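Hi support team,

I submitted a single chain yesterday and got back a structure, but I'm not sure I'm reading the token output correctly. Could someone confirm the output below corresponds to the sequence I sent? I've pasted both exactly as they appear in my results page.

Thanks,
R.
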Amino acid sequence: MWKYDLSFDIFPFDQIQDYRHVEQRIQSTVHTTALILPAINQFGQIIYADNTVSGRGLLFIEQYMLKHVLPYYANIHSEDSAGAIQTTKFHGGSRALIKRYANATDDDVAIFIGSGLIIAKKKFFQNQVLVESPDGIATPDVLGAIRVGSVFHLKESVGCHIIEALENECVEKFFRKFRNHEKLIILGSTSIHRLALFSFLIYVPIFMKYLHHNFVSVLLNDLFSIRVRSECSYNASYVSGLLNLDDQKSEIIMKFLTANENDQLDAITKNELIRYDFTQLDLSYFTSDEDVDYIFNAIEFIANGGWQFLPLYTCDSTTAVWRARTIPLENPSTQLHSLQMITFENGTMDETYKERQMQSTAIKNLNTHNLMINSTSNDSIEQARAMMKNIDLRTDPPLNIPVKYQNFIWFLLPQDIFPV
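Hi R., thanks for writing in. Yes, this is the structure output for that exact sequence:
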């Protein structure tokens, strides 16, 4: 068995005492990688605030992959070449690093799955499969596994105490701003020690309804170029508990989510909008103070006046997708980047000029500010009000909610703001 090398030697953080230097160093690499996106070059920096399950690439990790990993990449099903030995060493070293940093013992196994890793007790495995073999389960994502190990190594090099201090600052700042906010409802405890992960609803008192979570997410994206997460109900029992949904409400909601259109006895039409959910914000420990303030101010703006933008949007009850009215609701991404746009005609990998022009136009159309270009006001809410004069809501598709279930429309609709 190979003695895996546990050193990556790519993170210069071991001697750092000033944790602010760590934050700035990592943040600068995120900004550098962001320049890849044309949308950012044209419309400003995109701020990523959805780090719960995935994160954006760090330049120094990708540079290490390009310089030290990819040139020697080989199949790890065998170890009969220098490339295979080196790749196997990286792959096994990544697993060993993670187990060490997670305080795993000989009683634990570490299994690479998808873009992450699961650590479990060996006693739970009843078969004789060597679950920690280099081959992993089926064909492994070798490069992904090496990246996972690199991220764990980065975390350990920075230090948990530094990460905790940075996240605590974000948490304290969030609660100072929103703990007693009338329109932003924080879900979960506000007193226990927690990560910089926040779940919330936005309530509109004058209508006694909430903004739909997907609308909040889209508005943060369109107005402020901030990426957050909605549709967090992958754990139904957790969401039900967090939102205080009893069994009766949950059962009725499930009827709308699983309605059979061919069922003549049930008058309910499938409707994804009825699903109760929330918006989730997750800040990384290296998010800069400027970005944190920008994100919190944007959320506060939407909490106070986001409902006034509703008439500029339309929604699809079958998907719960919200789009600005200038964007085709059914498929707004048809002209964005895709592999079909790539050409190798000139011996290089590039997009055709025609496709680049189409993509540039599509990105511009995906920005709500284009809805407001005819307004002379610099105030975005005034611009939204001006646009309402030319909007006809009569063509909006109906929700088709039976009368007895009307109280399950817990969110505001465009016609609630601007009656037909």
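A quick pointer for reading it: The longest strand covers residues 197-204. Let us know if anything else looks off.

Best,
Support desk
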